[in-house]
Design a protein that fits this description.
By secondary structure, the protein is an alpha+beta fold. It folds into 3 domains: 122 residues, Sufe protein. Chain: A; 59 residues, Arc Repressor Mutant, subunit A (Orthogonal Bundle), CATH 1.10.10; 70 residues, Fe-S cluster assembly (FSCA) (GMP Synthetase, Chain A, domain 3, 2-Layer Sandwich), CATH 3.30.300.130. The chain is built from 11 helices and 8 strands. The strands form 3 sheets. Strands 1-2-3 form a 3-stranded antiparallel beta sheet, sandwiched between helices. The protein has a 3-stranded mixed beta sheet with strand order 6-7-8. Strands 4-5 form a two-stranded antiparallel sheet. Strand 4 and strand 5 form a beta hairpin. The longest helix has 28 residues. 41% of the residues are buried. This is Nitrogen fixation protein NifU.
């Protein structure tokens, strides 16, 4: 069982500054539903003083991602952009009383969202956020983000890199790339006097995890919770299916509708099955109740029932369903 601090539990159970910020002039997003965690950070900055007057967030994912996002809004409010830019993922974790290694990714994506928001306001969005060299295809994790995380957190083991960035958490085909990058950055840290030489990672120090034990699949484009409700992007639309051969005799209308409903239900259940582990690891759950046209009724239970972030969770579920089914759907909670 994971050991978490009271402060982390407090920021998860009673998150601060949740929701949209209409007057935001600096917005940064990081993560996707496909990764299981996503954060959108909104800042209202005084253009005369560069001081952050207000900060709010929207998030979907584990308790650490939500708590870290909540923490960031408190940490940056009242600070200048330069002061906020000096906050690291380690600072966020420390503010929460520490995070288990398995949850450090939460502080990393909150930091990346903050970094992106500041860069966007300063007109450096393209320069700062673009990471063309994707190192982990399964989770679309870029090399620059991994290198930044290794350097700032003094990581010295491939397993740490995976815990902090999710790179290599699926098929492990990128293990050798992670290993080489880790060794190079560690060597730079040693040269700069920031890491003892005996702690630096060397290629071959850790055995590669068995690829055959992990499922391998094609990486799929993932919708973010922040685009839900605005139609389906072209890259998420389902490819048209080849026309089925005409049956010898026309089927009754009721039978055709039943077959369509069954297929749709299966897709919805698959999407919910992919999301449920993320909810269950924080004591929550969801289940399909019924389907009426393009409206899907689900029931939230456990910690998700009555949670202040229930609406954000529903937005995440809706985005996942849109991604899976390939057309706009509406998700409605039922008691």
């Amino acid at each position: 069982m994971l050991q978490v601090s009271n402060r982390l539990n407090d920021h998860f159970s009673n998150p601060r500054n949740v929701g949209a910020l209409p007057g935001a002039n600096a917005v940064g997003s990081f993560g996707t539903i496909g990764w299981g965690d996503a954060v959108k950070l909104m800042l209202q900055v005084d253009p005369q003083t560069d001081r952050i007057e207000q900060a709010r967030f929207q998030a979907f994912g584990c308790s650490a991602a939500i708590a870290a996002s909540s923490a960031v809004t408190e940490m940056v409010t009242g600070k200048t952009l330069d002061e906020a830019g000096g906050i690291s993922s380690a600072d966020i974790a420390e503010f929460l009383g520490g995070l288990p290694p398995e949850r450090m990714y939460g502080s990393v994506i909150a930091y990346e969202a903050l970094r992106t928001a500041i860069a966007a306001l300063r007109g450096k969005a393209e320069l700062e956020s673009t990471d063309p060299d994707v190192l982990c295809d399964c989770f679309s994790v870029g090399q620059m983000m991994i290198e930044r995380t290794i350097r700032f957190n003094r990581l010295t083991d491939p397993e740490q890199v995976t815990a902090y960035t999710k790179a290599g958490a699926s098929c492990s085909c990128c293990f050798k790339k992670i290993e080489a990058l880790l060794a190079r950055v560690n060597a730079d840290l040693v040269e700069d006097g920031l890491l003892p030489a005996d702690q630096a990672y060397r290629v071959g120090s850790s055995p590669q995890r068995a690829i055959e034990l992990k499922p391998r699949g094609e990486a799929t484009a993932a919708a973010t919770i922040f685009s839900a409700g605005h139609g389906v992007p072209a890259h998420l639309r389902a490819m048209p299916k080849p026309a089925a051969p005409k049956p010898a005799a026309p089927r009754p209308v009721a039978a055709m509708a039943g077959a369509d409903t069954l297929t749709q239900t299966e897709l919805i259940e698959q999407a919910l099955a992919e999301l449920r582990p993320h909810l269950q690891r924080d004591g929550g759950d969801c289940e399909l109740v019924r389907i009426e046209d393009n409206t899907i009724y689900i029931r939230l239970s456990g910690n998700c029932d009555g949670c202040q972030l229930a609406s954000v969770t529903l937005s995440g579920v809706q985005a996942k369903l849109i991604e899976k089914i390939g057309r706009p759907m509406r998700v409605v909670p039922v008691p």
